[in-house]
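Annotated sample (chain length 126).
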Amino acid sequence: MTPILQVDVADPTPPYEQLRRQFVDLIGSGALPAGERLPPLRQLAADLGLAVGTVARTYRELEAAGLVRSRRGGGTRVTASPARPAGERARALHDLAVGYARQARLLGADRDAALDALRRAWPAEG
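Output written by the structure step:
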């Protein structure tokens, strides 16, 4: 089962790139392991309200990066779950933090409240 994917129409980032980033994150985290089949183009396009060509471009970009492999009649499957380089991981964390901070401010939370919520949400080590 593929985790939920979302496209934010208010985001200036093109939809294919939003999807590509989400798939890269899911593959890199292991949420989409090697061998996992991605949804068919038409199905994902319909689910997200996108043109089939938009999803096809996402899949082509993922294939060019070596993360998936497409076969006629066999669908598109994850080929690898590469470890993220430290710089890419730091950039991804920064992007997530910026989004979280923006949403927290929209809720009217101050910095301390947002950090407290993050600390409470973080699983205890052990």
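Annotation: The CA atoms of residues 108 and 114 lie 10 Å apart.
Annotation: The radius of gyration is 17 Å.
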